[in-house]
Structure formats: structure tokens, C-alpha cells
């Protein structure tokens, strides 16, 4: 972290305005009558340096500063604008632009600046200000006329221009207002109140703040536009675009929240407690509330098990078991009576697979089998004259426990069988509160902070100062988490051998003084302490806490932890259920179904660079963690990792699948390593240094270390042509003997040649041959296969290169399609012209481009090209699907485009974080998509909206 820099002397720093340039960020810092320019530069070691460039004294109190190239526009409290020129490291005062005469003073201001001409006259600049008496003043720079929007009943502390047609204001009257014209993105909203003034009207009023509102902004979240506010009562609130309060975020302590800033799909807040907190806006949208009441007034809820976002089980004190089903879009909760036994009083319940395990107050246990017919229950005698205090279940068996440390292990079936009986040592009263299966054995947490392992001999360990409330197994064998009433989450490792070893690997404590940690939902396990959502109780409130961001996501007053409750949570949504007054079960949920179904798996320890389908249901992934893995997944089936894990000497960057009798996978990465696997069997391995080393000019013994960044191949009748593009912009090609591979031998590879296709790093590539382009089919024999094949390469300078793969030195064709790196490309034959192909590309400049290329007599010609702004951040991947173009951006949007005009047709928000690659495979009337980045998301989209 860089050392702090005092830029305004002893004056307060009131605001910052950054201006990004190549390699440098200039920041305008302003306070009472001072303006300073600071330089923020990042070194090669990623260290950040701060340097004061210049400083100037201002004629009045500045409210806002905006950049227009080398000019700074300053808005002052006395209602005028002033231009300051940054020239040769110094600030020079320029033209003053007076504001409307009827307004004497502003308390806040916002600027929208498009450009200024050389003479200094404002062009396309708009200022919006807030006054002490609650008016919003809007005027073009240099113009005397102004619009005044009335509505607030107090001083306006903050004004923000979301765009040219939308304004957000925060006021002393404890409200936030959204103003807009008919051209605003929110213009379809009905007016909240007040009359239309010059085309402007109040679109929404956000109420519910306990104190003054210091700041507010409008955020474009995955679930729609949201209004976020920062208040003096230390709470960040999230409203819908219509002004409906959705969430209260209570992370700051004791003092007010002063400022907000938007970061992707999160909001950062700064408070008077000195803390900066990050609030994700993509975890759920509006919290829906639904409730269910027990049918009989004498009944009351004893136990709740939340199975999923849409299903739950309830046990009552009058021997009834209910299955509850929630339907999206409906307010009612559908209940089905699964089982009833007169005279029974259920005290505990657990569920797994097709069985429900319920314990009774008289010491009996009931095992209910859920089948297609009417559920049947079998009673077993568990404890004599002692209530069953807890029940736990796994796929294979169940446990019944009492409050004295006695545990019975049962196997289900038509005649349930007692497998084992255990007696835990220690205090007489030893209630068991949670359980989990690790390494084939049960772990139990009790009320004294001890975790017990049911194995011979009995193992136990004091883990928490208070109750053990939750246990969760991790994917790493033998590792699990425990959470307790002492406010700590511990990561453990059990190892079996001659002696059982038990080690605590790490500890995590959430903030805000949370102690009663009752629920754990693990999101990712790549760090020493996994990323998780923690369900905790603070007095009578339930709190959902994000361990990665260390902040509170949601809080609700539910009465406390002693009432039956349950939680299901993942990265996108959560569902919390609790018993209200023992008669009603309330469901609070942000879950919403969409058109994609699938899963999210971490799979690798680092980011995934490439993914490709080998065959239906079998996906290969290449990662920065030096491994190549296979994942078996598809529409409507579970996703399980295959046994194949290939390790490279460094990051695996590139994958390519060849269409042979059996799937052949080509992979490459760091240190120029290149490998081939046929049906999981290695058939070829080489490296660029071994095959074709490149010497560094002027250094006799040194060789250029290259990474393979992209791979492509063309399959012919008897051989496979393989091409690899490297970090030095070189393209190399090999010819592989396919028949030897298919007959059980290793590939006989012949190196063909190399050529320079780019002056910078190659990022992506695809190949086409006689099977891909009619123009290449003129040479159909295997001997001329290389001459009939070509490669298209995208590079870090935004250029698309094309060249033939024949033995002779090719003529490289290049065209500039993007202003920054060309991250991915996909091609499709042009049905209207057999000699042409259509290539869609993804760029770091937020655009996608579509180019039409023609190849005749070994020469490439650009026929046409177009590009459009596609995403709000870098576009990482593109693909052709059912005659349409798919694009995937870092903004986590998957978009569908009409290829003729590049008009957007559909959009889907994905749950894959930091996506890098996209693989598509048709399956019937659906498209199976693999999205990979920080994890793998397998989902399916209906292809019916995609004609053709």
C-alpha cells in the first residue's frame, strides 16, 4: 500500500476526480479553495506510487471537478463554472462560465462534460446543483436559463448525473429522489409526484431512512436498475428503480455512511467509522416473503428442514410431517401431509435421499420412506423413557441422539436395523446440535464446544468456547468446517493412518460482533479459509454474512435462534425459513428461476483459461493451476470430475479437440509444452524449445521462453494438422499420423515450419481446412492437406491475422478489428459465398466485431467488417450457435446477437465469476453451454428462440 500523500496542506479533502491515461492515472483532489493534481502510477512489480504534480488556489468553494481531456471544469458554490488548463505540469486559470442569476448558492453539484473547444467555450457540458431549500437546478454551461425541480423539503447533500436524462439526489429530508426525462432508461416509470418541468419529472421517491441521507447513486445491477443510498444512521439501503426498499445493509459501526461508489456489480461505501466496505448487488434481488400456517390451531412447529430454495419439511408436536413446495411467481405455499401418527410428539427431524428420520418425546424414532405411492413410516424403539433430542441423516443411514450423549446408528429398510450404539464421554448433559459425514465417519458437535468423531476408538476435541452449531464437509478429503456460538469458524483436517491425526488449519471470525454462527454455505474452497455465506443470529436478528467481502448482506428480525429455522444459500440467492410464533413458517427468499439450468463448480484452484467439449457430456478445462481436467456434465445430469488430471510445468493456456473415431485432445501452455491425449491416453508430448527453439539476438546461449497461447487443428483422412500460436506471435505447425494413434501407438509427428503472424502475443486461434471451406477443397489429397489448411489468429494488439499452413512461407494477411486485445474468435462458413467465411471476434475494447473474409489462390481479402459496443467491460469469448452469435463478457452477461446487423436479441446474467471462455454444444432443441473462469458453470439454453 502506498504511503499517504498530503495534497491540500491542512485543508480537508472533499472530493476526487480521476482521469485515466496510458499507464498513468491523474487524480484531481479538491477541498476548501484548493485544487491539486496527483499522479498514480503502477510499477512493474505492481507497486503503486503517488506523486503531487501541482496545486492551485481557487477563487471559491469547489463542489465538483470533471475532466475534459487536458481541461478541468470546476463547479463552485456561488453558481458558476471555471476552466483550468493543465499545461506543462502546472494549472492555469481559464474562462469563467456564469450560471443562472436567479440562484444564489449551491450546496452540491454534479457535472457532465462531453468536450470543450480550443477557445474555451463550453460545448455539451451540463451542471446539476442542489440548493439549501431543496431545489434541483439544471443548466447548460455558459447559459443563463435554468430548470428548477421542486420536491425535496430540505437541503440537497448530493447530486449525481447517471446520464444526460437521469439525476439522483440525496437530501436532508431523509429521502432520495430519481429525476428523469422521457428519454431516461427509467422513463417508462410512472411519475412519483409533482409536475413536468421542461421535460423533467420525479420518477421515484425512496423513503425509509432514519436520518439524513448523505449520498445516493443509481446502479445497473443484473436484476435491474437499483438505487443505493448512504445515510447518517449507518445503513446502506438498496431500493428498486420505483422506490421500493429491497435491502438494508448494516455493516458500518456507530457512525454515518458518507459516500458511495459503483464497482462493477458491487457498491463500495465509506463511513465515518473509517471503514470502506464492498456490497455485492448480484446476490439476489428483491426478497420475497411467503408464509405457511399449521392447519390445526392446537399444532405447533417443532422442526424445519429446508431442502432447497423451493422445498422444505416441517415436523409438528402432534405427530405430523408436512412437505412444503414453493412455486415461483405465486404467493401461496403448497403443503402436503406426508405422515401422521396420533399420540406422537416429534422433537427432532432430519432428511436425506428418500428417507425422513424423526425422533419423538417418548424415546421412539420414526423412519418415513418417501416413495411414488403413499409414504410409509416404520417405528423403532430408541431410548427408554428419554426423548430423542436430535436426528441426523445421510444417504446411507441415520442417527438418533438423546441429551445425555447416547447415539444410535440405524440403517433404513423395510425392517430398519440398528448398526451401532455409542456413548459419548464428558458431562452428563451433552446435547448434540449438528452432524456431518467426513471420511465415511460421523462428526457430531455438542453444546459444550466439543466435536466428536464416531470411530473406534472414539475421538473428540474441544473446538469452540460455547456450542458447536454447524459442521460442513469440504471437497478436500478429511477437511471440514465447524462454526460455534463463540463467533468462530474453524477449518479442520482429519487424517487416518496408524493413528488418527486432527489438526486445525485456520480460523475466521466475522465482523459486527457476530457470535451465534448457526448456518454455513460454502461457495469456493480455493483459499486457506473457504469463501462462504454465514447465517448468524444477533439477539433477535438473523444476519447473512459474506466471509470473502467480510460484510453483512441481509438482516431480518426473526425472534432469535431458539425457534426452528433453516437456510439454503449460494452465490446468486438465498432462502431463509423460520418459525414465527410456532404456528407460522416464514420464507424469505431472493431465489428466481431463469431459462438456464445448471451448476457452478470451482474444479480448479485458479482461473480457467480454456474449455472445450470432447464429446457430449465430457468437458475439458485448462487452468492457471497447471492442470488439465475432465468434467463429465450435461443437460439434466449431475456433474462429476473425471479421474484424468494432467499436470503441466506451468499454466495450461490452450485446448483444442479433434474429430476422430475417439476424442483427441490437444493442450499447451507455459514453457512451450504441447501434449495430445486420445481417450485419456497420452499419445504425443513435445515443447517449442525442443522442436523449434528461438535464439535471442545477441545472446548466443539464450533461448526465447515462449508460452503456447492458442491451438488449432484440421483433420484429414489419414493425418492431423496441428497449429500452435505462441506468446511471441509465432505460428508453428506439425503433421500427426492419425492411424498410429487409433491403433494403440503414439503419434508420429513431423514438424512443418514456423512463421511470424503477429508482432505481439497471440491470444486465440482457429483453423480451417478442406472440410471447413469450399475454397480449400481443391486439394483433397492427404499430401496437399497442409496447403489446403489455414489459420486465423487474434493478437494482443487487436489485429486478426490469416495465413496458409502450407510448407512454403505464407503471405500473412492482417486487419485491425479492435482497439485493444482480440481475446477470442469463432468462424462459420458463409452460405452465400463458398469462398468466404464469417469471423466473429471478442475484444478488450468492450466490442465484438464481425468480419467477412474471402480466400482465393492462397490470398486473403477482407470483404466487409463491422463492430459494436457489446458489454460494459472486456468481451472474453464468442461463439456461433444456431445461426446466431453468442458473446460472454467480464460483466457476466451472456448475450445473443443477430449476425447480419449485430443487433442484440437476448441477454442472460451468469453466475460464473471472471468468465474467460465459452464452449457450446447442441443437444436436441437446447444448447449446452460451458462457461469457465473462476469455476465452471454448465447450463442449458433453449435454442428455439434462435432461428435456423
How would you describe the overall organization of this protein?
Strand 20 and strand 21 form a beta hairpin. The C terminus is likely disordered. The strands form 20 sheets. Strands 13-14-15-17-16 form a five-stranded antiparallel sheet, with no helix packed on it. Helices cover 1% and strands 58% of the residues. It is built from two helices and 80 strands. Among the domains are: 149 residues, YVTN repeat-like/Quinoprotein amine dehydrogenase (Methylamine Dehydrogenase, Chain H), CATH 2.130.10; 137 residues. It is mainly β and 948 residues long. It starts with 14 loop residues before the first strand and ends in a 6-residue tail after the last strand.
Overview features:
Methylamine Dehydrogenase, Chain H; 58% strand; mainly beta; 80 strands; 4-stranded antiparallel sheet; 948 residues
Amino acid at each position: 500500500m502506498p504511503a499517504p500523500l498530503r495534497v491540500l496542506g491542512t485543508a480537508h479533502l472533499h472530493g476526487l476526480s480521476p482521469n485515466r491515461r496510458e499507464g498513468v492515472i491523474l487524480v484531481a483532489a479538491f477541498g476548501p479553495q484548493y485544487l491539486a493534481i496527483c499522479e498514480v502510477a503502477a510499477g512493474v512489480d505492481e507497486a503503486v506510487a503517488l506523486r503531487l504534480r501541482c496545486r492551485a488556489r481557487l477563487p471559491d468553494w469547489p463542489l465538483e471537478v470533471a475532466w475534459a481531456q487536458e481541461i478541468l471544469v470546476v463547479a463552485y458554490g456561488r453558481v458558476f463554472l471555471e476552466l483550468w488548463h493543465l499545461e506543462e505540469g502546472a494549472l492555469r486559470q481559464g474562462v469563467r462560465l456564469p450560471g443562472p442569476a436567479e440562484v444564489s448558492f449551491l450546496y452540491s453539484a454534479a457535472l457532465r462534460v462531453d468536450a470543450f473547444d480550443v477557445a474555451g467555450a463550453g460545448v455539451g457540458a451540463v451542471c446539476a446543483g442542489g440548493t439549501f431549500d431543496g431545489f434541483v437546478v439544471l443548466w447548460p454551461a455558459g447559459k443563463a436559463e435554468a430548470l428548477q425541480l421542486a420536491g425535496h423539503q430540505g437541503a440537497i447533500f448530493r447530486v449525481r448525473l447517471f446520464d444526460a436524462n437521469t439525476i439522483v439526489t440525496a437530501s436532508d429530508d431523509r429521502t432520495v429522489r430519481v429525476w428523469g426525462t422521457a428519454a431516461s432508461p427509467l422513463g417508462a416509470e410512472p411519475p412519483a409526484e409533482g409536475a413536468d418541468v421542461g421535460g423533467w419529472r420525479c420518477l421515484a421517491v425512496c423513503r425509509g431512512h432514519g436520518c439524513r441521507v448523505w449520498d445516493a447513486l443509481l446502479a445497473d445491477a443484473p436484476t435491474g436498475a437499483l438505487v443505493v443510498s448512504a445515510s447518517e444512521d449507518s445503513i446502506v439501503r438498496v431500493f428498486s428503480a420505483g422506490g421500493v426498499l429491497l435491502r438494508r445493509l448494516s455493516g458500518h459501526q456507530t457512525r454515518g455512511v458518507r459516500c458511495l461508489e459503483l464497482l462493477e456489480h458491487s457498491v463500495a461505501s465509506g463511513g465515518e467509522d473509517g471503514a470502506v466496505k464492498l456490497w455485492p448487488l448480484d446476490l439476489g434481488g428483491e426478497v420475497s416473503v411467503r408464509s405457511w400456517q399449521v392447519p390445526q390451531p392446537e399444532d405447533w412447529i417443532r422442526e424445519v428442514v429446508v431442502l432447497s430454495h423451493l422445498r422444505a419439511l416441517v415436523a409438528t408436536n402432534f405427530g405430523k410431517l408436512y412437505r412444503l413446495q414453493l412455486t415461483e411467481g405465486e404467493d401461496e405455499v403448497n403443503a402436503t401431509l406426508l405422515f401422521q401418527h396420533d399420540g406422537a410428539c416429534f422433537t427432532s427431524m432430519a432428511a436425506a435421499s428418500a428417507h425422513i428420520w424423526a425422533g419423538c418425546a417418548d424415546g421412539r424414532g420414526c423412519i418415513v420412506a418417501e416413495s411414488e405411492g403413499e409414504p410409509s413410516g416404520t417405528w423403532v424403539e430408541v431410548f427408554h423413557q428419554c426423548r430423542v433430542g436430535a436426528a441426523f441423516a445421510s444417504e446411507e443411514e441415520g442417527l438418533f441422539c438423546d441429551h445425555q450423549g447416547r447415539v444410535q446408528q440405524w440403517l433404513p429398510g423395510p425392517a430398519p436395523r440398528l448398526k451401532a450404539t455409542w456413548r459419548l464421554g464428558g458431562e452428563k448433559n451433552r446435547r448434540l446440535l449438528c452432524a456431518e459425514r467426513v471420511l465415511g465417519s460421523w462428526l457430531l458437535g455438542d453444546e459444550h464446544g466439543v466435536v466428536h468423531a464416531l470411530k473406534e476408538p472414539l475421538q473428540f476435541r474441544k473446538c469452540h468456547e460455547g456450542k458447536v452449531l454447524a459442521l460442513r464437509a469440504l471437497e478436500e478429503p478429511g477437511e471440514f468446517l465447524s462454526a460455534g456460538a463463540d463467533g468462530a469458524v474453524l477449518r479442520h483436517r482429519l487424517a487416518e493412518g496408524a493413528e488418527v491425526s486432527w489438526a486445525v488449519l485456520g480460523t475466521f471470525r466475522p465482523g459486527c460482533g457476530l457470535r451465534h454462527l448457526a448456518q454455513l454455505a460454502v461457495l469456493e474452497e480455493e483459499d486457506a479459509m473457504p469463501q462462504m455465506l454465514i447465517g448468524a443470529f444477533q439477539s433477535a436478528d438473523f444476519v447473512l454474512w459474506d466471509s470473502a467481502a467480510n460484510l453483512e448482506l441481509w438482516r431480518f428480525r426473526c425472534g432469535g435462534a431458539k425457534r426452528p429455522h433453516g437456510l439454503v444459500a449460494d452465490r446468486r440467492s438465498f432462502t431463509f425459513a423460520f418459525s414465527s410464533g410456532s404456528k407460522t413458517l416464514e420464507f424469505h427468499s431472493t431465489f428466481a428461476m431463469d431459462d438456464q439450468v445448471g451448476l457452478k463448480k470451482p474444479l480448479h484452484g485458479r482461473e480457467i483459461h480454456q474449455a472445450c467439449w470432447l464429446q457430449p457430456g465430457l468437458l475439458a478445462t485448462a487452468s492457471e493451476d497447471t492442470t488439465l481436467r475432465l468434467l463429465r456434465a450435461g443437460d439434466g445430469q449431475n456433474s462429476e470430475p473425471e479421474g484424468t488430471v494432467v499436470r503441466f510445468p506451468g499454466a495450461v493456456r490452450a485446448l483444442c479437440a479433434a474429430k476422430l473415431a475417439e476424442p483427441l485432445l490437444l493442450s499447451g501452455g507455459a514453457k512451450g509444452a504441447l501434449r495430445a491425449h486420445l481417450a485419456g491416453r497420452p499419445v504425443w508430448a513435445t515443447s517449442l524449445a525442443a522442436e523449434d527453439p528461438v535464439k535471442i539476438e545477441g545472446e548466443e546461449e539464450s533461448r526465447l521462453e515462449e508460452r503456447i497461447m492458442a491451438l488449432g487443428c484440421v483433420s484429414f483422412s489419414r493425418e492431423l494438422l496441428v497449429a500452435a500460436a505462441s506468446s511471441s506471435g509465432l505460428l508453428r505447425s506439425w503433421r500427426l499420423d492419425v492411424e498410429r494413434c487409433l491403433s494403440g501407438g503414439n503419434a508420429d509427428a513431423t514438424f512443418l515450419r514456423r512463421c511470424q503472424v503477429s508482432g505481439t502475443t497471440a491470444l486465440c486461434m482457429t483453423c480451417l481446412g478442406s472440410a471447413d471451406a469450399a475454397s480449400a477443397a481443391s486439394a483433397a489429397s492427404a499430401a496437399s492437406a497442409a496447403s489446403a489448411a489455414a489459420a486465423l489468429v487474434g493478437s494482443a494488439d487487436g489485429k486478426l491475422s490469416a495465413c496458409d499452413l502450407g510448407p512454403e512461407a505464407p503471405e500473412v494477411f492482417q486487419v485491425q478489428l479492435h482497439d485493444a486485445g482480440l481475446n477470442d474468435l469463432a468462424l462459420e462458413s458463409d452460405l452465400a459465398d463458398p469462398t468466404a467465411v464469417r469471423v466473429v471476434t471478442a475484444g478488450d475494447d468492450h466490442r465484438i466485431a464481425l468480419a467477412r473474409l474471402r480466400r482465393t489462390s492462397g490470398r486473403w481479402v477482407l470483404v466487409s467488417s463491422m463492430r459494436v459496443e457489446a458489454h460494459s467491460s472486456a468481451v472474453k469469448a464468442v461463439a456461433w450457435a444456431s445461426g446466431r452469435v453468442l458473446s460472454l463478457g467480464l460483466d457476466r452477461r451472456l448475450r445473443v446477437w443477430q449476425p447480419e446487423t449485430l443487433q442484440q436479441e437476448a441477454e442472460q446474467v451468469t453466475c460464473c465469476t471472471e468468465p474467460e471462455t465459452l464452449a457450446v454444444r447442441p443437444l436436441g432443441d437446447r444448447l449446452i453451454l460451458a462457461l469457465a473462469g473462476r469455476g465452471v458453470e454448465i447450463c442449458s439454453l433453449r435454442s428455439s428462440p434462435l432461428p435456423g
